[in-house]
UniProtKB/TrEMBL annotation:
Protein name: TIGR01457 family HAD-type hydrolase
Similarity comment: Belongs to the HAD-like hydrolase superfamily. NagD family.
Organism: Ureibacillus thermophilus
Active site: 10, 12
Keywords: Hydrolase, Magnesium, Metal-binding
Keyword DNA damage: no
Positions bound to substrate: 181
Keyword hit for Hydrolase: yes
Cofactor(s) named in the record: Mg(2+)
Molecular-function GO term, any one: metal ion binding
Taxonomic placement: Bacteria, Bacillati, Bacillota, Bacilli, Bacillales
Pfam family, one: Hydrolase_6
Coiled-coil spans in chain: none
């Protein structure tokens, strides 16, 4: 086993499912923290601020700082600022994406936007989707914080942000830009800010199409856990394989 320094965890389906912790993951994170190894949380969930995610982790018995949390909301806000400057943006989403845009001083509008940004919104309505469709048809760029079609909860799978972004893209016949995993941007941010070599980093997740491909595209080792969206049997049929397979994190020894 390689000696890794930075362990990057997906959240939904890897550390918890909905309102229930995955005990083996929590125990593994505690072991890493006891060994003074670096732990990061890399999530496509744009609905929560880093502070809110920290509180969620705390409820599951995990102590983390906001600096350890990287979300698709932060990446999306930085991308829009760099790519579109002072553009007017229509945002569908919750606290996380709105706070990230406020911190970047990006103007959020309800009418005639230059960009439509879609993050997960549990208060999504037909009116919001229609407004997004009309704006895109009138020339606005379409950006999704992530392309997850579904995510696991203690009840079963719920619709993910990607399902709504694809609805708008199909109505408007345009290709959206997606910012979260499998894009390697969040892992690149961690590497740049802390100076790790790629061989020192490990991406851990349950979803091949987001978590595992993110690690592969970044160039670090990956662990697929069989606790969430994509089961190991399906992953083993993929052309590009994760470095490790485990049923859960009790099987991964450091």
């Amino acid at each position: 086993m390689k000696q890794y320094r930075a362990f990057c965890f997906d959240l939904d389906g890897t550390v918890y499912r909905g309102k229930e912790a995955i005990p083996t993951a929590v125990k593994f994170i505690h072991q890493l923290q006891e060994k003074k190894l670096d732990v990061f949380f890399v999530t496509n969930n744009s609905s929560k601020t880093p502070s809110q995610i920290r509180e969620t982790l705390k409820q599951f018995g995990i102590d983390a700082s906001e600096k350890q949390i990287y979300s698709s909301a932060l990446v999306t806000a930085k991308y829009v600022k760099e790519r579109f400057g002072q553009a007017k943006v229509y945002v569908i989403g919750q606290d996380g994406i709105r706070r990230a845009f406020q911190e970047q001083n990006i103007g959020m509008v309800e009418e005639k936007p230059d960009v439509v940004v879609m993050g997960i919104d549990r208060m999504i309505t037909y009116e919001k989707l229609t407004k997004a469709c009309l704006a895109v048809q009138n020339g606005a760029a379409l950006i999704g914080t992530n392309e997850d079609i579904r995510f696991p909860t203690e009840e079963g799978f719920h619709p993910g942000n990607g399902s709504f972004v694809k609805l708008v893209s199909q109505v408007c016949n345009v290709e959206p830009i997606f910012m979260g995993k499998p894009s390697p941007v969040m892992l690149e941010m961690i590497q740049q800010e802390y100076g790790y070599g790629k061989e020192e980093m490990l991406m851990i997740g349950d979803n091949y199409d987001t978590d595992i491909l993110c690690g592969i595209r970044f160039g670090c080792d990956t662990v697929h856990v069989n606790t969430g969206v994509v089961k190991a049997e399906a992953v083993k049929e993929k052309e590009l394989q994760p470095t490790y397979y485990v049923e859960d994190l009790s099987e991964f020894h450091i």
